[in-house]
Amino acid sequence: MDAPTRSSLASKQTPPQPFSVPFFGQADALFERHLLSDAVVEPVGAYERQRFEALGHSVRDVLAAQWIKTQATYDQADPKRIYYLSMEFLIGRSLTNNLTNLMLNPSFKHAAIEAQLDWVGMVEQEPDAGLGNGGLGRLAACFLDSMATMQLPAMGYGLRYEYGMFKQAIEQGWQREQPDNWLRRQDPWEILRRSEFVEVKLSCSFEMHQGNLQIVAGHPSTLIGVPYDRPIVGFGGRTINSLRLWSATAPDYFDFQEFSSGDFVGALVGSISAQTLTRVLYPDDSTQKGQALRFAQEYFLVACSLADLIRRFRRHSDDWQLLPEKVAIQLNDTHPSLSVPELMRILLDEANLPWDEAWDLTTRSLAYTNHTLLPEALEKWPLHYFRQMLPRQLEIIYEINSRFLSDVRSRHPGDEGIVERVSLIEEGEEDKVRMANLAIVGSHSTNGVAAIHSNLLKTTTVRDLAQIFPERFNNKTNGVTPRRWLLMCNPDLSQVISDAIGEDWMEDFSKIVDLAPHAGEPGFQHAFLQAKRNAKANFAGWLHSVSGQSVDPDSIFDCQIKRIHEYKRQMLNALRVIVLYNRIRAVPDLEITPRTFFFAGKAAPGYRIAKLIIKFLNNLAGTIDGDPLVRGRIKVVFLPEYCVSLAERLIPAADVSNQISTAGYEASGTSNMKFMMNGALTIATRDGATIEMAEQAGEDNFFLFGLTAQQVAESRGWYDPRWHYDNDVETRQAIDLIASDHFSQNERGAFGPIVDILLHGDHYMHLADLSAYLAADQALCALYADRNEWARKAILNVAHSGPFSSDRSIAQYASEIWRAKPCPVA
Ligand SMILES: *Cc1c(COP(=O)(O)O)cnc(C)c1O
C-alpha cells in the first residue's frame, strides 16, 4: 500500500502513457534499459513508480563515475576533511535536485514531455526523505549542498531512520500522526556499503518491553552499524560528496563471514532490540525528552561516525598529532556531543596517548553549533544512562570535569557559584550531564546561528563559559541553498532573474545584488509580477487538484509555515485574522484587498497546546469559509503535511512571509530566507536572522513591528496580558470571540486552554505585540495596492538576499572554524 497522501495522487496518474523512444540523449537508453532489466516491463506498460525508479537509476548512472572520481581525488590529495555530524538531515526529494545540480533539469523535463511522459507525476513518485524535524535538519541538508558546490572535501554523517518525520493527517481539524514508511520501496539513491560496517560496543543490552525499549544493565552487547551512502551533487556536477547514514543491526543478523573483520566477540543481543535503534526519528522539536532509546541513537551516530573517520585518517597517517590538521568535525547542536568523550576514549584507550595530548587533539578537532536558547531544549542526560550504557565515557567526563573545574577554581578562587554553573554535571534529584557545557568545554569553537542569537548565547545562556573561553565563541548566520530554494523550486522567477543579470547567481549568489538597479524598471517589475502570478496560479491549481479547495491567485498570499510552537506564535497570526474578520463583520462594505492566509506545520505528538492550535486554525478556516459575509475577502487555509516538498511549492507563490516569534526566541529561522529569495515581503519581529535580512534590504523595505528582545526581557517581571485585554478593544473582541465558542460551536469550551494561556501569563507575549502587528499589516496592505512600488520593494529584497545563501555560511565555517580548503576534482 502507498502512503495515504500519495496513493490518491498515484491512482489519478497511473494509467500507462504512450512512450516514444527518442528520449533524453545518453539517458534515454539508460532509462529504457532500467525499465527492461530492473523492473522487467515493456517501457510502454510501465507504471509511474517504475518510471521514477528507472529515471532515478539513470541519473545515478550519469553521476556514478564522477562520484567515484571525487572520492578518489580526496584519497589521493589527502586534504583536510570536513565531517558534519547531525541527527537530522531533512533532505526532501533528490531527483529534481540532482538533475538541477547536474544542470540537466530543463533538458530532462523537456525530453520527458516530448516523449509524452507525465513529468510531474513521475517526480511526485519520490517520497520526501524526511529525516528531520524542521530548521535544524534542513540546515544540515542545505550545508551539504553548499559544501559540494564549493568543492569542499566534506561528508555528512547521520542515521538511516526507517521511519522519518511522521506524516500529518488532519481529521476534524485535529492532527493525526501516521508513520512515514519512506523506505518501503527501494530508494534509488542509497548505496549499501556493507564492507564498511562498524562495531559499536555498549555495556548493556536492550530488550523490548510492551513496545518500549528497556536497558538491560550488566549485559554488554555489540551493535553493527551498516553505512548507506547517498550522493550529494555540487552545482555543476564536478564534486559529488557523500552523505553516510548508519543503520543499526545485530551481529546475529550480520554475515561476518563475508569480510575479514578480525576477532569478533560480542554478546548476541536480541536482534529485534538492536534493529529498533535506528527505526524511528524522534518527532520532538525544541523539547528534550529523556528517553533511553534517543540517548542510544545519539551514541550510535557518534560511535559509528568517529570509528569510520578515524579509520580513514589512519589509512593515510600513523601520526595521531596530524588529526586536527586532517579532520574537522562539526557537531550540529549537542545531539552528537558524545563525540567529546568518545574521541577521548579512542585516543586514550586505542591510541594509548597521554591525557593532555588526547585532550589537545580532541578539542582542536571538534566544533559545536548551538541552535537554541530555550531551556527545555537544552539536552541534559541522566547519569544513570551513562552508568549503564557508557561507563568508560562517564569516567572520561568525570575526569574532564575535574580538571576543568580545578582550572576554574584557580581562576575564580572562592567563587563556588561559577563552579556550579559551568560544571558538566548538574546536581539535583537526579544528576545529569549538561551536553552544551560538554560540547563547549570539549571543542575549540562554539557558534550561534544569527548575530542576535550568538550574542544572547554569550551574554545569557552560557555567560560564564563565554567569559572563560571568549576566543571560542563566534557567529555563523544560517543560510539556505539558492539552488533548491530558488533555481529548482521557482523556474519562472529564476528565468526572469537570469534574463536580467545572467546565470552566475546560481553558483555565486552574491551576484544577485546585480538585480538592485533593475528594481525601479517598469518592464522588469512587470516580468517579476508575472512570475509571481504564475507561481500563485500553479499553486492554486495544485491545491485544487489534491484537495478540491479553491484559492484566488489574485488575493494576497500571506504565509506562515513552520513547526507549530508557542514561541513561533501562530496564535498571534490567528488573532490578527480574527481582528480583520471582526472589522468586516462590523462594517460589511469595508474595502479590503482579498487575502488568503496559509498556515502549515506539524506539532510534536506530545505537545498538547501546539496540537490544540492546529485544531484552532482549522476551525478558524472552517468558520470563515462558512460565513457568507467574509467569503471572497478573507480565507484561511491550513495545509496538512508540511514538508520540504510543500515548502518548495508554496514559497514561490508567497506575497507575504510571517516571521513573528517573540523576540529573542527564534535562533535564526531559515524559512524567512527562502521567502526573501522568492520575492515575498516580510512582516516580522526583530528576531533571529530576520534582523540581518532587514539590515541588508533596508528597514523601509521590511515590515518590522513589536517588542525587541531587550524589551521582552525587561518587561518579563511586570508584563500583564490583562492590561491589553482591558485597554484594547480589538484585542478584547478577538479573545471574547474565541471564548464565546464562535469557532467551536459544536465543541463547546474546546479552546478554553488557549484563552487561558493568552490571558494568564501569556509567556510569549502575544497580546503585547498584537496592535503593532495590525499596524504593520495595514501598511503592508496599503503598499500592495501600488503594484509597482510593491514589486520594487520585493525585487530589492531578492537583490539583497545574497548573504543568506548557505554558500556564504559555509565559506565562513570553512575559513574561520574548519580551516579547510576546496579540493577540486579534475
Ligand atoms: C525551512 C524549513 C523549516 C524551517 O522553517 P523556520 O520557519 O525557519 O522554522 C522547517 N521545515 C521545513 C520543511 C523547511 O523547509
Automatic annotation (TrEMBL):
<comment type="similarity">
    <text>Belongs to the glycogen phosphorylase family.</text>
</comment>
<keyword id="KW-0808">Transferase</keyword>
<comment type="function">
    <text>Phosphorylase is an important allosteric enzyme in carbohydrate metabolism. Enzymes from different sources differ in their regulatory mechanisms and in their natural substrates. However, all known phosphorylases share catalytic and structural properties.</text>
</comment>
<dbReference type="InterPro" id="IPR035090">
    <property type="entry name" value="Pyridoxal_P_attach_site"/>
</dbReference>
<protein>
    <recommendedName>
        <fullName>Alpha-1,4 glucan phosphorylase</fullName>
        <ecNumber>2.4.1.1</ecNumber>
    </recommendedName>
</protein>
<keyword id="KW-0119">Carbohydrate metabolism</keyword>
<dbReference type="InterPro" id="IPR011833">
    <property type="entry name" value="Glycg_phsphrylas"/>
</dbReference>
<dbReference type="InterPro" id="IPR000811">
    <property type="entry name" value="Glyco_trans_35"/>
</dbReference>
<comment type="function">
    <text>Allosteric enzyme that catalyzes the rate-limiting step in glycogen catabolism, the phosphorolytic cleavage of glycogen to produce glucose-1-phosphate, and plays a central role in maintaining cellular and organismal glucose homeostasis.</text>
</comment>
<keyword id="KW-0663">Pyridoxal phosphate</keyword>
<keyword id="KW-0328">Glycosyltransferase</keyword>
<dbReference type="Pfam" id="PF00343">
    <property type="entry name" value="Phosphorylase"/>
</dbReference>
